[in-house]
Amino acid sequence: MTFRLPRRARLLGLALLITALPSLAATAPQPFDARYHLEVSGWPDIDIDHRLSQEAGHWQSEMRASLPGARGHEWGRFRLDDERVSSLHYAAGYSLLGISRAYSLERDDLAPLPDRQSALVALARRVIDDADDRGRLRYRDHRGREERLDYRVLDRAPVTLPTGRFEAVRVTLAEPDEDDRRMEITFDARRPGLLLGMAYYRDGERKSRLSLTRLGGD
Question: What is the pTM of this model?
Answer without folding.
Answer: 0.83
